[in-house]
């Protein structure tokens, strides 16, 4: 009889153990992916589906990603220029009195709002690593910076993009909506933290005392060199951001567009870019009265923007030109898109990493729930305010 500890028995046992660890997640993943592509391929035809995926991704790369990268470079340069010449500190001092009554945060948190607005969500994390910054916070306030900073992430990029599409008032209405959504998200997150960890309400975020703060020594440079360095360094940061949004735009937007748009004008599938199976509009149409009442959406296709913004706001922005071509967008939609795009700004893909870097990964579900509510509130406020403004 073969020994139970023979090499073959050990190998079989190892294989069974390996399979048992992967089957609970691997099988559902495989089923979902195969079912999704079977559904799309059965309706479009396999060759047309593959051609549409490639053509859509290629067109997005050339006509959307590089356009967004251009905006990132310009806004990055402006942002670094503002930092170099004290505009950020000026804005911080202006916003400082609003922090405590609105967000229940110390005044220095306004610096995080300005920096994330000029760049992206992770800017709040790099700031939170500075002991001179975090010494002003209680622990529950410090953790809520994840929600606070995310609500303003890539704000300048979103507004500049919307203005570039020919809308001037609506994006700033959306900015106000995002501001309101940030208040809701931050406050709810603070409530969740204090409820789960009551001691965090009184504990200092920085446990060790900061006895000596070293001031950064800056080398004296001429005005021209300071301007040049700021523009070039900021532009280089913009390139990094532009490269970082490529996966989100090409992967998420391509999938969302295939699920949003329909066949060609003739009603046939040709494998061209931006053809699809119209699954999301079909689902949205079933509950369109909700989106119309809350957001003022006039077409069920528009629901694709907030869905995409969950993962990447850059990818969501790539939907706008095609929506405009189809005639689905109005000023109200731009206001709502700006509000929910800024407030959410891909938080599903960043909150986990941000809280992990702060050391509070277990609070990720609470942060996501709070920010979901905040983003919806931001969109509702933008819609109501747009209706009121247009009636005046």
Structure characterization notes:
The chain is 73% helix and 0% strand. It has helices at residues 7-44, 46-84, 87-103, 109-118, 123-128, 131-134, 139-143, 145-150, 155-164, 170-196, 223-244, 246-260, 279-286, 288-295, 304-309, 313-317, 320-326, 331-344, 347-358, 364-391. Mean pLDDT is 83; it is low at 209-218. By secondary structure, it is mainly α. It is built from 20 helices and no strands.
Supply database-style keywords:
392 residues, mainly alpha, globular
- Please report the distance between the alpha carbons of the first and last residues: 91 Å
Helical content stands at over 70%
User: What is the SS-derived class?
Assistant: mainly alpha
Gyration radius, to the nearest Å?
24 Å
Average of pLDDT: 83
> Helical stretch count?
20
Major beta-sheet overview? none
Tally of strands: 0
Strand-and-helix sequence, N→C? HHHHHHHHHHHHHHHHHHHH
How big a fraction of the residues is strand? Answer: under 5%
What's the arrangement of secondary structure elements?
Blueprint: H1 7-44, H2 46-84, H3 87-103, H4 109-118, H5 123-128, H6 131-134, H7 139-143, H8 145-150, H9 155-164, H10 170-196, H11 223-244, H12 246-260, H13 279-286, H14 288-295, H15 304-309, H16 313-317, H17 320-326, H18 331-344, H19 347-358, H20 364-391
Helix pairs in contact: 1-2, 2-9, 2-11, 2-12, 3-4, 9-10, 9-18, 10-18, 10-20, 18-20, 19-20
């Amino acid at each position: 009889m073969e020994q139970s500890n023979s090499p073959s028995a050990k190998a079989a046992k190892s294989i069974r153990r390996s399979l048992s660890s992967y089957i609970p997640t691997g099988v559902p993943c495989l089923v979902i992916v195969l079912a999704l592509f079977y559904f799309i391929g059965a309706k479009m035809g396999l060759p047309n589906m593959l051609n549409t995926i490639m053509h859509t991704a290629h067109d997005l790369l050339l006509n959307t990603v590089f356009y967004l990268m251009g905006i990132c470079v310009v806004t990055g340069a402006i942002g670094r220029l503002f930092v170099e010449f004290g505009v950020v500190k000026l804005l911080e001092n202006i916003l400082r009195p609003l922090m405590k009554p609105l967000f229940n945060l110390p005044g220095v948190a306004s610096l995080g709002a300005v920096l994330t607005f000029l760049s992206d969500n992770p800017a709040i994390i790099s700031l939170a690593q500075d002991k001179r910054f975090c010494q002003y916070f209680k622990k529950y306030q410090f953790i809520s910076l994840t929600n606070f900073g995310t609500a303003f992430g890539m704000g300048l990029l979103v507004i500049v993009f919307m203005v570039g599409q020919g809308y001037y008032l609506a994006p700033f209405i959306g900015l106000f909506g995002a501001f309101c959504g940030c208040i809701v998200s931050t406050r709810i997150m603070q409530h969740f933290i204090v409820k789960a960890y009551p001691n965090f309400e009184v504990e200092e975020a920085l446990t060790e005392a900061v006895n000596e703060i070293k001031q950064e020594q800056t080398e004296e440079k001429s005005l021209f060199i300071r301007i040049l360095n700021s523009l070039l360094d900021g532009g280089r940061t913009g390139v990094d951001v532009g490269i970082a949004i490529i996966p989100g735009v090409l992967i998420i937007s391509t999938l969302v567009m295939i699920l949003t748009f329909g066949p060609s004008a003739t009603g046939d599938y040709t494998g061209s870019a931006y053809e699809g199976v119209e699954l999301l509009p079909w689902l949205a149409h079933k509950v369109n009265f909700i989106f119309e009442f809350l957001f003022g959406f006039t077409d069920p296709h528009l629901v694709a923007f907030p869905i995409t913004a969950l993962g990447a706001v850059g990818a969501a922005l790539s939907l706008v030109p095609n929506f405009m071509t189809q005639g689905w967008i109005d000023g109200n939609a731009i206001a709502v898109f700006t509000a929910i795009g800024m407030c959410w700004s891909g938080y599903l893909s960043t909150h986990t990493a941000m809280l992990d870097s702060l050391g509070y990964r277990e609070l990720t579900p609470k942060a996501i729930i709070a920010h979901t509510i905040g983003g919806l509130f931001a969109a509702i406020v933008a819609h109501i305010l747009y209706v009121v403004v247009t009636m005046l």
